[in-house]
Automatic annotation (TrEMBL):
Keyword terms, alphabetized: Endonuclease, Hydrolase, Metal-binding, Nuclease
Entry protein name: ribonuclease H
PROSITE patterns referenced in this protein's UniProt entry, alphabetically: RNASE_H_1
Keyword Metal-binding listed: yes
One BP annotation, GO: DNA replication, removal of RNA primer
């Protein structure tokens, strides 16, 4: 037994069966809402299924032996936060398009923000900074707004994000597992989406995405829309940075989902 303990002690925490792992506390089923317009973000990272579901290809970056921490705080949130987000784009679809992001927490709230999207994201990895192209569109503006709003909101309070973008709502909730299973191959704005998912996984209380009809008199949406328009018209762009969090990132693609066409597309990308 002493020798067994010595061998187990050599394992990183992520692979040590004696240590608490996400599967020990993550629910079997994703969180659900009774409101059809609300989708709750699923923080789970555990792979369920057969052993064939655990093999991945096209893995990126260095090996990470850190145990992911996706445990949510117990009990009800004391001060739930509601924020409205929106994206805007001037000359949408053209080479000279300029996109903006709007974030609205409430009247005269210092966190209200207008951002002008740059043409590149800055991806920060260990000892280097890399540029990744960023599309100028309403959709990217919306996702940038959500990313920014999540980053500046308390980690330990429930967050309700009100958005008029079905694209942003589904890509950051319902589609996350499917996107990760296929390694985001063929998915537009994948670096931005992946970075936003990581930020959402860091939160310790629930995150809910509520779809609201745009330009329909919703106070938060109307205010966020105005802020996004101001952002798109700014003379200078804002820096949008992505910081790697290897323990919360799922890289590569699930082998069981891979087809010849998908593998070829991954190589070309």
């Amino acid at each position: 037994m002493k020798r067994v303990k010595e061998l187990l002690d050599t394992l990183p925490g992520k692979w040590d069966p004696r240590k608490e792992q996400p599967e020990d506390y993550e629910p079997r089923n994703p969180p659900a809402s009774d409101d059809k317009d609300i989708i709750m973000f699923d923080t789970r990272v555990t792979t369920n299924g057969s052993i064939t579901d655990t093999f991945w290809v096209f893995i990126e970056g260095i090996t990470c032996n850190e145990t992911p921490d996706t445990k949510q705080h117990d009990g009800l949130a004391i001060n739930p936060v509601t924020v409205a987000t929106d994206g805007s784009c001037l000359e949408n679809g053209r080479l000279d398009a300029k996109a903006g992001a709007g974030v609205f927490f409430g009247e005269n709230d210092h966190r209200n923000s207008s951002l002008r999207l740059p043409n590149h994201l800055y991806r920060i990895e260990a000892d280097r900074i890399m540029q990744t192209p960023l599309e100028q569109s309403n959709q990217t503006g919306e996702v940038v707004a959500i990313k920014f709003a999540t980053e500046i909101s308390p980690l330990d309070e429930e967050l309700m994000i009100e958005t008029d973008s079905k694209y942003a709502q589904t890509q950051l909730t319902s589609n996350v597992q499917a996107n990760e299973d296929k390694g985001y191959i063929g998915v537009k704005n994948r670096e931005l989406l992946k970075a936003t998912v990581v930020i959402l996984r860091k939160r310790k209380q629930g995150t809910l995405f509520k779809w609201v009809k745009g330009h329909n008199g919703h106070d938060g949406n109307e205010a966020a829309d105005k802020l996004a328009g101001v952002g798109a018209e700014k003379e200078s762009t804002d820096n949008i940075c992505i910081r790697r969090v290897p323990a919360l990132e799922i890289t590569g693609a699930k082998l069981s989902t891979m087809t010849q066409a998908l593998a070829y597309q991954a190589i070309r990308e």
